[in-house]
Structure formats: C-alpha cells, structure tokens
Automatic annotation (TrEMBL):
Protein name: Phytoene desaturase
Pathway(s) this gene product operates in, as recorded in its UniProt entry: Carotenoid biosynthesis
Keyword annotations: Carotenoid biosynthesis, Oxidoreductase
Family: Belongs to the carotenoid/retinoid oxidoreductase family.
Kinase in keyword set: no
Lineage: Bacteria, Bacillati, Actinomycetota, Actinomycetes, Micrococcales
Amino acid sequence: MRPGAGRPLRAVVVGAGLSGLSAAAHLRAAGADVTVIEAETTPGGRCPDVTTEGFRLELGPTVLTETQQLATVFEALGESMSEWLGLVPLDPAYTAHFADGSLLPMHTDPARMHTVIADFAGAREAAGYDRFVRRVRRMYDVEMPHFIDRNLDGTASLIRPSVLRLAALRGFGRLDALVASHFRDERLRQAFSFQSLYVGVPPDRALGMFAVVAAMDLVHGVSYPVGGMHAIVRALVEVTQRHGVGFRFGEPVSAVRPAGSGYDVTTAHGTEHADAVVLTCEPPVAATLLGDPAAIRPVATPSPSCVLLAAGIPSGLPGSGHHHVHFGGSLIGALHDLTAGRPMRDPSFLVSVPTRTDPGLAPPGGDVLYALFPAPARHGAGAGIDWQRLRGPYRHHLLRRLSTAGYAVSTLVGEHLLTPVDWAERGMPWGTPFSAAHTFRQSGPFRQPNRLGPRLALAGSGTTPGIGVPMVLISGRLAAERVLAHE
C-alpha cells in the first residue's frame, strides 16, 4: 500500500458523515495517513447534532440495527466500542399501531414474540411467525457475507452457489408474497413488510431478499446510543483523532482531479495532492467533483423522500415506547401514492420519542419528538409538487395526524420541519435523504459501483451496499478496501 519508499499512503476522505468516519478508521488502521475534509463546520453529515433550549433533536437516522457493524469500526483501531459509546437495547423494537385501533409490540426475542402474536392473532399466525423468523435468518446468513458485506464486481459476482440458495429462499420473488405465505392477518403482513420503506420500494414491488431487513431489526434487535444518534459521530471522531486521523471542517471540496499517480483535491484553501481519495457524497455530486458525468451510473428511480418534524415537547408526552409505526388502512396503497408522485392520502408514519430511553436529551419533564411522514421524491410526477406552497398545509395535516394518534403537539420548542425542498437544499439529489431506491437494477452489483478509478472510491448510501446506518458503515470499509487493494 506504500506509493513510495518509506512513505505511507496519503488518503483524503471527503465528508465526515458515518461512511466517511468508517472509511477513515479502516484506512488509518491499515497505516494510511488520513485527513477528513468536511464542508460543514461540524461532523455528522445526515446525522447532525442539533440542540436548542436544552432539547437534543434527531434530524437524521433514528433506528440503529446491526451494532456489530459499528463495533467493527472501533475494533479496526484496536478499540472497544463499549469504552466509547453506550448502547441501550430497545424492547420492544417498535410498537405497531393499526387502523382498527389494535397495537402490537414488536419484540426481538422470538419466544416472547411468538406468545404475543398468539395472543394477538391466534396460534396459526404465531406458527407463521416462527417460520418467517427461520426464513429471514437463513436469508441473512446468505446475503450478509455474499451480497452485502463484500465488494462486488459486476454480475460475475453473482455466479456462485449463494445465488441458488437465495433463490430457493424466494429471495427473487416479491416481498409481499413472501410475507403473505407466512401470515394471513393483514395487520401482521403490514408489520413484517413495512421495512421495504427503508429500501425505497413498496412491498408488492420489492424483492423478497429485502425481508432480510426484518431480520436486522425484528430479530437481531434495535438499539439506541446514550446521548442521541449523534453520539455515534462524536465517538468515531474522537477515536479516529486519537489514532492520528486529521479533520478539517468548514472546507467544502470543489474538485477532485487525477494528477500523476494520485489526485489533486481542491478547496477554498487551495489544492493538495493525495494518493487516494474516498468520496462520501451522492453519486451525482461525485460526478460534479470529478468533472466527469460518465463516471457515475444514472439513477432511474430514487427512493421516496419524507417530511420530518423534530421538536422538543416541554410538557412531555403520554404513553411509553421509543419507536412507533402507525399504519393507515393500506400500507401498499400509501406507498403507491408516493411512487405516483402524490402525498399519502391515508398515511403510514414513524414516530420516535427517544427521551423515553434517554431522558437526558431534554430538560426535566420534557420529551423529544421525531415524526417521519414519507413523501414523494422530487422526481418524475413528484417533481411538480410545490412544497413551498404546501409546507404550511402539510404541517397542519401532520400535526392533526399526530394529535389523533395520541401525541400532544400543541407546544413545540426548536421545531424543525424538513420537506423534500429542504433535503434538496442540503445537497441531496431528488430531494430525498434516502438516495437511490433498491430496485432490482439498483441493488447489489447493479447499484452505483464504489470503485471510481485507481485509488478512488465512493462510500455512502448511493453506492453498495445501500441505505441505512449499518450499510453506510459497511460502505466506508468497502471503499477503504478498494483504495488499499490497488497497486
């Protein structure tokens, strides 16, 4: 990995989000001289630190699964995650709220969940749950090592026995059909297929292989970091700095160009040379930095976007439980509204109240509220929505839905309301924080490749393996492997 005698590889990571921090840790662990250059004045990317009047708000991801992937980043530097970060397992992982008024706590212990489902919908449905857990565990065992946690090089990467194993598990059929083969109760079908929203595709259009997401959160478990999701960022910055990674904040990168055996990286402070570069932006932004649109694979279908409300509630909120999924009458119908380019008429949405797990995020007696309502991306039919005009009416609609669902939202402190316009202004193409949808032609080896050139790699949700906290952490490591493997 040494480009010259007696000199370590000089690597620049563009972006101090989760994927960039992961890449920096793995590059440094391999002996590289690493500098992370971040446009914002603070680290975090899509996991920012927002504190107002004593309330620490979440404006990015709130669901943390597959914590071993996070532990791997610390372990690469010879550190123990538990010494840097406190994680609290959530039980239940979610509470599902259905249109008929029924509730289902989603526990991750299969024996306990079997009993809960038997009481909720009967013994036959509980037996279906047992079969579903066995199936998604087998899917995970195939997909994680062979399709997620490794670098893929085109369709040749798929010519292996693991593809046949995945096909036998109905991984290439439709997700809704796979779930329906285990559950007859429509509520349970919703509860075990809503994860398709994470990959940007309705259950009746998503591949069955994405049932593996259910294994990640509803079998392996969901956790929450003490201090909020940004605590992950703080810990990774501190541990990488201890091991010699340099950081420069408030310094947008304007160009990355081939130069000699490496790359010239240009910012407002000048141009410097690096042997290797990892970009952590969305692919279209990477194309602009590289000055080469041909380097990036076009995206045909972006994921749906969302309207996000985050605020402090001084008087607190009634009830219990951290994550709540509220279903409308038809999950598939709501998601089809999004793909048709219109706001959901009968919305399904996520509410998180992280102070129920970590009261220190708010002043005494207060709560933090996070409400995510999926919305169309600014693409296709959705590009015509005037969110500036709709912002006020949609906020009223969102607050009314929350009130009906039992969340007292009359007084909000430090309110942040983010629509697709706001996401676009934050540099996210198509006005969505969820990047390209995981359609068949935008997944696995068909997704934007992470290798962009010699010692030039891409990390983040726009490339492999895809969307979600564990995925972008993996993407950082895979990008590091790309640039380290080049000779």
